[in-house]
Amino acid sequence: MTNHLVLEVGTALVIIALAAVLAGKLKFSIIPFLIILGMLVGPHIPVFGIIDLSFVNSYEIIEFLGRIGVLFLLFYLGLEFSVKKLERSGKNIVVGGSIYIAINFSLGLLYGVVNGFPLEETLIIAGIITFSSSAIVAKVLVDLKRTGNKETELILGIIMFEDIVLAVYLSIVSGMILGGSSSWFDTLISIGISLGYILLFFVIARKATPILNKLLNITSNEIFILVIFAALFFIAGFSETIHVAEAIGALLIGLVFSETEHSERIEHLVVPFRDFFGAIFFFSFGLSIDPSTLGDAVWLVLGAVIITIFGNFTAGLIAGRRAKLSYKASSNIGLTIVSRGEFSIILANLAVMGSLMEVIKPFAALYVLILAILGPMLTKESKRIYLLLDKIFKWSAKEEKKKLLVKQMKQQEQNHSG
Questions:
Q1: In whole angstroms, what separates CA 409 from the centre of its chain?
Q2: Exposed/middle/buried for 214, CB within 10 Å: 0-12, 13-18, 19+?
Q3: Residue 96's closest CA among 147, 158, 162, 149?
Q4: Structural contact between residues 320 and 333, judged by C-beta atoms closer than 8 angstroms
Q5: Three-state SS for 100?
Q6: pLDDT tens track of the chain, all 418 residues?
Q7: Distance from C-alpha of 394 to C-alpha of 373, rounded to nearest angstrom
Q8: How far apart are CA 161 and CA 96, in angstroms?
């Protein structure tokens, strides 16, 4: 059977390609298609001649290629983000991002506690519920041609803020779960090492840019990409040895490269690898899920989906209004960033690596699947949802009344000055 190893991997890639074509035809996110198709095949599927859809022999290879996909996804996000962008983003993004994280994380913690989960499982569930999918949100904004909307800058800012918090959060949680800490003191040491490691990369990103610019001044694309990938995989691997998730190592080295004058060149070269290996990641995650186990997580997932939609809408509304956006624009924020994807799955994989409760993986799979479908739908129908809620809360009437009062005050000031 091992003679057919390449054929098995090739079959997996055919399935992934079919999912991509189908998603493209339907103009929908590829993530749910990849997870579903991954779940539909696997060990529970019989072998058809030389075509083995169980992927038993090739599973470890597919899983490893998926791990590479995670590295490229977070490396790319690191390239998209920069310390300078954060400094220029302004108060609204920091305030909006803080409101979004605080509301959703509090709901996630409460949900874990109410359902009787231990501390580590509760932290994983809270993280899964808190962090939205940058990939899905960005794709939806482009597909619906909303990049020019007033609220889009705040949406992208909140996503960027999430990425930073995620880096710290993943480091803390991975330190607790993977650090093998036997006491709170050991746990604090692991957390301290993780945070110090992150801070080191922020310092490098700000202070070592001139040196990196010279070192990366390589004419040959072949040599250039070898150097970049060598740095990516070495840093990711080294990060894991000090109990910082390898994905965070990829994010941090991406952050460092984002500050260099070669960032656009790196981004251009990385995109095809991100898309290819990223697709394998979502498929391999689906492949690791036994559909028969999803029934155990259904009610847990439905509750999580409800509080996620509520938390996102509330947070978006508050953040938008604090930024002086209209009720309509503010409601768009919460309805756009509701999708969950790669980060939720990364946290679920962390739970698996730490041998936490088995229900976490099917919970994450079903949760991501539902919100990866519902998220784009809610964004697309945001206008109708706003109009429906406006009939209840009379938001437009309040705004008209406020505009009228402002107009009257200005007129009175003009009359008084006259």
A1: 46
A2: exposed
A3: 158
A4: yes
A5: helix
A6: 456 788 889 989 999 999 999 988 887 778 888 888 888 888 777 666 667 787 888 888 998 998 898 888 888 877 876 666 556 656 778 899 999 999 999 999 999 999 999 999 999 999 999 999 877 887 788 778 887 788 888 887 788 778 778 877 887 888 788 765 555 666 677 667 777 888 888 889 888 889 999 999 999 999 999 999 999 999 999 988 887 778 878 888 998 998 899 999 999 999 899 889 988 988 888 887 778 878 878 999 999 999 999 999 999 999 999 988 889 999 999 999 998 887 888 888 888 888 888 889 889 989 988 998 898 889 888 999 999 998 898 888 888 887 788 777 777 777 766 5
A7: 29
A8: 9
Instruction: Name the residue with tokens 């001044």.
Output: 217
The number of helix segments (H) and strand segments (E) in the chain equals 19, 0
Token pair for 229: 């990938």
Q: Per the structure block, which two tokens stand in for 234?
A: 């070495």
Quickly list H helices, 179-220: 184-207, 209-215
Contact 235, 253 (CB under 8 A): yes
Tokens of 24: 């493209």
pTM: 0.75
